[in-house]
Fold each of these.
Amino acid sequence: MEAAVDAFYRKVLSDDTVAHFFDDVDMDRQRAKQKAFLTMAFGGPHNYSGKDMRTAHARLVVNGLNDAHFDAIVGHLGATLAELGVAPDLIQQVAAIAESTRADVLGR
Amino acid sequence: MPTVTFGNRSCELAQGETVLDGLLRHDIPAVHACKTGSCGSCMLRAVSGQVPEVSQIGLKDAWRARGYFLPCVCRPTEDIEIGETAGDIRVAARIASLVPLSGNVLQVRLVLDGPFEFRAGQYLTLIAGDTLARSYSIASIPSDGPLELHVRRMPNGQMSTWLFDDAHEGDAVRIQGPSGECFYVPGRPDQPLLLVGTGTGLAPLYGIVRDALACGHRGPIHLFHGALRPEGLYLVDELNALAAAHSNFTYTPTTDPIERAVAGSIPKLDGYRAFVCGDPAVVQLLKRKIFLAGAAMREIHADAFLPSAA
Ligand SMILES: Cc1cc2nc3c(=O)[nH]c(=O)nc-3n(C[C@H](O)[C@H](O)[C@H](O)COP(=O)(O)OP(=O)(O)OC[C@H]3O[C@@H](n4cnc5c(N)ncnc54)[C@H](O)[C@@H]3O)c2cc1C
Ligand code: HEM
């Protein structure tokens, strides 16, 4: 899990199309967030409701968060899991769970 | 609204108000510094009433069990009575020496009247007078004897102005702590270490380097110290001497942007353990750069020297 969090976050921060959303977020807080993100994406127990997801990303939506950014993040997630040797059908499941949050994350 | 009783005074808290703000609003003197629950300066003990769990996060179990809590993040739901604290959490100390290390950095040495256990690199709260408290990193290692701090002069800064202009050898102060997770842990003696700091961010790193060497660390140890101007670089002779005496230790003082100096000499940081201290904005930037250069997040230890709240 720890390796996955680091690898995923490194991809996100290295991608100039989305990295600026994370500029003023403290790394340690962000890391806890990435962990929550992955736990959630794997369908594990988490404490976030759709409303929480809306609130967490509302500030980003104001700053222009859109479908392309969302796709990029889901893409990095899939690529990270593939690198770690996760089976393709499980990756697809994870992507579907992430997809189910799209409307909330993008505030629609 | 809950009432807080402190000695023979009591105050009713306003909606959402913290215990610390309530005390200060009633002119009840209370030591404090960061006001965010991290420095620990304001710790008090509740002798009756239940304090919320969040106000005890980060405190030692033994303190928690005795009712200690951080009033700056405590919004109680019931009445609280605060009892005597000082004796068991604060250690009386005297200023042993005040020596300029550069134009704007002062070395403050303290001798203590009681025991104080710490790891090199941790920080403490220095308390002068009744309520003035600030966090300072410890630059010495336990075997040195006196505790050593490096204090930068802040224009109009309360604590730094007192130390630079008015304090004398022999003056009484108190210390509390230590806190912080930025220290060397023995066990992987061949791992490469990276230490990066700006300004008085050198203080904890100076302790950590000497601690790692004293623990017999064999892997490479790289220390980068950044300052805006050459006068801001201090302990240069001491660190050059340390580098001459230990072939695995390299010291790079620089007035270039520090993240560039690091990336220029060590582009890949896979497998490194890193320690980063000093100005908060620089610390945040460095943590990110070090992570992107390959270090694992849990291997990056950092202390940001946040200014204290008013
Ligand atoms: C964990 C930790 C470790 C620390 N270690 C050290 C250390 O080893 N050496 C050291 O010198 N300091 C260190 N500090 C900072 C120290 O605690 C004080 O904040 C600092 O010495 C200024 O205190 P002062 O009373 O002189 O100034 P204050 O009276 O607190 O401040 C005077 C004025 O300067 C402003 N100000 C204060 N700090 C800054 C800043 N960094 N940037 C911009 N404006 C500022 C204030 O807002 C205020 O207006 C550390 C802080 C933390 C949280
Ligand atoms: C793919 C679906 C996504 C999920 C499941 C998800 C999940 C989360 C979760 C659980 C939090 C934590 C909230 C908290 O604890 O405070 C969060 C915060 C955050 N998310 Fe996402 N997220 C998603 C998409 C995105 C995208 C596309 C971006 C930007 C490109 C993004 C950027 C952020 C940022 C910057 C924060 C921190 C906000 C702050 O602390 O101010 N997220 N996200």
Amino acid sequence: MPIITYREALNQALREEMARDDRVYIMGEEVGVYNGAYKVTKGLLEEFGENRVVDSPIAELGFAGIGVGSAMAGLRPVIEFMTWNFALLAIDQVVNSAAKMLYMSGGQFNVPIVFRGPNGAALQLGAQHSQAFESWLAHIPGIKVVSPGTPYDAKGLLKSAIRDDNPVVVLEGEMLYNTKGEVPDHEYLIPLGKADRKRTGTDCSIITSGKMALVAMQVADLLAKEDIHIDVIDLLTIRPMDVEAIYESVRKTQRAVVLEEGWEVCGIGAQVVDYIQRECFDHLDAPVLRVHQADVPMPYAKGLEKIAKPDVAKTIAAVKQVMYRT
Amino acid sequence: MATTKKKTSIKCEPVAVRTVGDPALDRELLQSMLLQRRFEEKVGEAYALGKIGGFCHLYIGQEAVSTGIIAQLRPDDYVIGTYRDHGQALVRGVAPRAVMAELFGRIDGCSRGKGGSMHMFDRHTNFLGGHGIVGSHVPLAAGVGFAIKYRGGDQVIVCFMGDSVVNIGAFHEALNMAALWKLPVLFVIENNRYGMGTPVEKAAAVDDLSRRADGYTGMDGIVVDGMDVHAVCEAAARAIARARTESRPSLLEVRTYRFRGHSMSDAVSGTYRSKDELDEYQSYDPIFSLRDAMVLASTMTVAEWEALEAEVAATVQDAWDFADASPEPPPAALYEDVLVDTTS
Ligand SMILES: Cc1ncc(C[n+]2csc(CCOP(=O)(O)OP(=O)(O)O)c2C)c(N)n1
Ligand SMILES: [Mg+2]
């Protein structure tokens, strides 16, 4: 199987879907001539022309709304946010327009749109450029939220997101764009709403998504050497969440750690823990623990940033704690 | 008469004496405006009886705007607007029964009872909704214009908005891109002089709202007297033709006035505006001034007017009866329409 980067996988997904359906277009800052701030749209302008690869002004609220309006009139926009930090300026169009249109029109106007871009922290970008918005977005009924961690998942999920007739948020990762993985030559889709077991084990579950799936796999590989076998459940789609996959895993392992990139308070992990306590209470041998970012804006200083982020060491410590091994 | 901007006063300066036009057309315009008026009066009654809940914004006084502008559209064109949307829905051709049932929160409402007063939608007439967040629908309108152009079509979209919208970011972002990309959009400011209780001159650092267009190359800014339905028709026809044939957006400021409070909980006058001011504007009533001009010009008899009133009253009563008899959405509807389960 060819090995390509996460960036190339997304690029392939966009190219294939634009070739397949001429209602699909991409709009955002620097997506055309510049080839994308992170080069995800490289070559698309050349291939599809400026009608379908549209460089917008720096006006997130405006072009997100243009995307929604065009979707109501039958197009299938892919709106690229240079990063999700900037998408906060457009959150009104995501929450009040895209997510509400079908419901408040009594089922008449669906909004087939993809909002995508890098989410979460990279390295030393400081407080305003290092935020993970999974829980903000997953809170909203009326949209789907996916968060791929590998090139394979990125391509399959983005293709499904573009074909979905609902608004779909795709949370990518700046630190993921250069990571590599196997992606088949043939066409494939990954269904939205289905988790993927990234490692199989019977001792403890780690429930996670996105960039943190890579951390969880590292943790599983390291702990395997200590004869601790982790079941890694990569949610892939955060809304709607594949709760059955969580239940199945936790009923088997009877212990769980929930790992996420964002902040603790009202985070994705809080929701997962709630599902577990309601449905797997009798199976649990230890309280479920959470690993997440420190409850502070992201600092710039290298050392501080490192200790603010969830990582392999913190996750291993949490796993050992739920296994009562120290 | 439509004048191309450069008026200094923010006040609308209507003329009391109206011109008449083609008698058949005038009758249609009159009928369209009267239907909105009597419908909205009925809505006020239903609200007082508790049959309608939530926020409800009446359009009384502004009828010439929707009538004059929507009359210039083709069936395949699009209309989008704000929460003050009952009149526009009716003029666009959404059945009075469906609008009233929506207000009553019933299953036969145009949004199946899920939208309410502020969110009228109708796919059949390309009525893209009443939107409740000030300014948010203006980019949506530009997006529809983008889709039209993307497909190489010759439709247009009309975007109705209140006067306070010209001060919010979404408006400027949308107008900038509409002008930049030459999108077939007619942006209509219904300047009724107030955003809730705030007069325009306390909110906008521009003395003539249509001048907002000056910031966007290729966009015409136009002012028209919104109490004169003929003037509205004429200005809208030109701007819509420009959008259709040259794919150029325009900003049309229509000077009008609302005769009722901002919403049902707002007093008609006495706080932010005086009774005298209200009386003055009511003397420019777009419906009665046209009626009087027609009677004066003998293009309509008093008996014909009375027949029109009776016809409209029957339509409105029928809408009420229909809405009242329509069932509430069943509990199962709660979880419907959150997501569609299809892919393309
Ligand atoms: C972004 C936003 N802020 C505040 C409100 C509350 N609000 C609803 S209508 C309104 C006044 C709008 O006035 P205008 O645009 O002149 O329209 P009109 O009501 O006169 O038709 C306000 C402040 C809102 N709906 N959206
Ligand atoms: Mg107003």
